[in-house]
Amino acid sequence: MGRENQTVVTEFILAGFSHFADLQVMLFLVFSLIYLVTLMGNVIIITTIRLNRSLHIPMYFFLSILSFSEICYSLAIIPNMLANLLREKKTISFIGCATQMFLFLGFACTNCMLLIVMGYDRYVSICKPLHYQILMNQRLCTKMVACSATTGFLFSTTETIIIFTLPFCGPNKIKHFLCDLAPLLELACGRNYIGEIVLFIIAFLVVICSFLFILLSYILIANTVLKIPTMAGKQKAFSTCASHLIVVVVHFGCAAITYLAPKSSYTLNETIFISISYTMVTPLLNPLVYSLRNKDVQKALRKSLGKRSCTQRI
Questions:
Q1: Domains assigned to the chain
Q2: What pTM was estimated for this model as a whole?
Q3: What are the tens digits of pLDDT across the range 160-186?
């Protein structure tokens, strides 16, 4: 394949919702509402944690970073998807497609790394409570966040380079509403077998290995909690993990279905539905779960709202 063929395709057509031509406006309204709620929810989480000193502990520091990462993750995908629902020419430039993939995968991988860190934080808090302040100091927490982002975007950079150094010289219609790995591999004129193996290894590391690390944390946590003599003590310990566990199960469940299932397992409509769950529901779940299930966050929210109402009266 000649080098010149790699630059023939200058833009891609995102045809993810082409089968729902009569529902474009309705989908735009529904997705816009979900997006606004997601943005507002995550911003409220970040603001609440920042303004309440009682939440200035590692658990909520990591939560605020996760919320920020979810906002950036959504920004990489949803605005362009909403715009495409309203315009006839649903195109994205070659560079724009590469940029979207880099950001989307970067923040997705970072979120997985952050969930590992949050699992480790719960392990130290419950299994080593006397050493928690020393082990989970601010310097270490900052390093763990930086390492999560660096690892996430290192994986993303590798994946983006592998995909966009492939030759694209024929069809340019992506069967998706975003620039993702599998639909772009289908469009490539050539194959990079070593690159595809690397892509699978990265997906395996990010999804399966990350989940196993978190699972190990919770096995150790369960072992410690079961030794607590009182039922009230057990419930209190487990309650600090419930929100994180729910987010982990949904996040890694959707990721495994999206990136580790065989390509032929799903129809186009099923793939789109799964991707919507992964790109829209997961970022929405983070603020929703932590707001509804976490008593500390609820208390801080009520406190912040109380202060605001008092200020308005004055």
A1: 8-313 (1.20.1070.10)
A2: 0.87
A3: 999 999 888 878 888 888 998 888 988
